[in-house]
Amino acid sequence: MSKRDFYDVLGVSRSASADEIKKAYRKKAKELHPDRNADNPEAESQFKEANEAYEVLKDADKKAAYDRFGHAAFDGGMGGGPRPGAGGGPGGADFQSAFSDVFDDLFGDFMGGQRGGGGRRAARGSDLRYNLRVTLEEAYNGLQKTINVPTAVACSTCSGTGAEGGAEPVSCPTCSGMGKVRAQQGFFTVERTCPTCSGLGQIIKNPCKSCGGSGRVEKDRALSVNIPAGVETGTRIRLAGEGEAGLRGGPPGDLYIFIDVARHELFDRDGTNLYCKVPVSMAKAALGGAIEVPTIDGGRGRVQIPAGSQSGRQMRLRSKGMPALRGGAPGDMFIELAVETPVNLTSRQKELLREFEDLSEDNNPAMSSFFSSVKSFWDSMKG
């Protein structure tokens, strides 16, 4: 049985362009795919026939040979053509190539991309990271801050196309816009990135002199960033579309700002709570009394110290901590006492302390308990 004319199989004229042939093939492949024609026993053979026709007509050299000699160009009758079954002819074992075409061309759109390098012609720009250090006060109040970000922006000379004068890129002649080329090695078809267009599927005949054909240039950008109140170290802020410009007019990436809150000389932070260690005199701790402490909002808080307070004792100022980043009640501020032993005593102070010590045998319960335990320990060791 004689083979049908390949142009008739795909339903195109002999003067059809490569894009028209590809479009016709994809339409036929979708119509005839066996998975969609379970009730049509002839669909599989027609599907293979369409693949066979496309394998020849998509290749410029094979198409030229077919236009001149017809099917005889691939039957061995014209001398130089590929042999059937050698992997290069339409009737041969080029199953890998046809199989790849089916999935790339038929299902590429359903998988969110295009065949070969076509989906990368206008590549999305890279996401950028910017580390921003703020003070604890800035984290408490929030702020509007201007930052300078070095990044790649769309070239204004070529409007991001990469071509001189803003001209559109043209289809790569090596891969016919696919972004990849195939080479037959025995029974296997090896596919690799097109060396001419680097997988983009397009080339620029006259590259823009300002950007060298990339469609983007390096430049520092000043951006205004809103830092919300309550941020802490590790908080990430995303600025959509403020990343690196896309290649040849592609969409830009995003900018991610990572917050680092600097340590404070007075306050330690744990979530929304703040901790402040306050030194107090031995006399104040013993007698008790009120002291003033700083708060993160720049104000003052008054704290009453109970008589007989020890180092490490904590007192709380409610709602004087950090604000919650995503709403909710603010944290608390905890005052931790650090009882300070006096230094550089005068003779009179030493005299008074010795007199005080002589009168304080019953005023140090922790010390009395400790040394009582020590005496019991020593006695047990002797026994």
Task: Estimate the mean pLDDT confidence.
Answer: 81
CATH architecture field of the largest domain? Ribbon
Based on Cα principal axes, name the global outline.
Answer: elongated
**Annotation, overall tally of beta strands:** 15
The SSE order reads HHHHHEHEEEEEEEEEEHEEEEHH
**CATH fold naming of the largest domain:** Chaperone, DNAj Protein, Chain A
Q: Spatial order of the strands in the main sheet?
A: 10-11-15-14
Number of domains: 4
Percentage of residues in helical conformation: 25-40%
Structural class given helices, strands, pairing?
A: alpha+beta
- Rg (C-alpha, Å): 40 Å
Beta-strand residue fraction: 15-25%
Q: What kind of assembly state do the chains in view correspond to?
A: single chain
CATH class annotation of the largest domain: Mainly Beta
Low-confidence stretches: 77-120
| Main sheet makeup | 4 strands, mixed
How large is the count of helical segments?
9
Architecture overview:
One of its GO terms (cellular component) is cytoplasm. Pfam families: DnaJ, DnaJ_C, DnaJ_CXXCXGXG. The structure is a single chain. The chain has nine helices and 15 strands. The chain is an alpha+beta fold and 383 residues long. It folds into four domains: 108 residues, Helix Hairpins, CATH 1.10.287.110; 134 residues, Chaperone, DNAj Protein, Chain A; 73 residues, HSP40/DNAj peptide-binding domain, CATH 2.60.260; 32 residues. β10 and β11 form a beta hairpin. α2 runs antiparallel to α3. About 11% of the residues have low confidence.
